[in-house]
Amino acid sequence: GNWIAFGGSNVRVKWDVYFMNSSGGEVRRVTQDSTDNVDVTHISRDGSWILYELSNLGKSEIAIVPTLGGPTKIICEGREPRFDEVNQRIFYFGKGYTSYHWSTSDSGLSIWRNSDVVWLINLDGSHDSMVYVDSSLIGFSSSSSESFSPSPDGRSIAWTKTNRDYSHTIIAVDLVNGKETNLPFGKGQISDVFWSYNNFIIFSQYTKNSRNYDLYIGAPDGVESLQLTQSSTINELYGVLSEDGKKLLYYQTQQTGNIKVLNLETGEIKSMTSDDRNRLVARLSPDNRYLAYIPGRYGAEIIDLSGKQSIKNFASDERIRQILWAP
Question: b or e along 8-42 (b: 16 or more beta carbons within 10 Å of the residue's beta carbon)?
Answer without folding.
Answer: eeeeeeebbbbbeeeeeeeeeebbebebbebbbbb
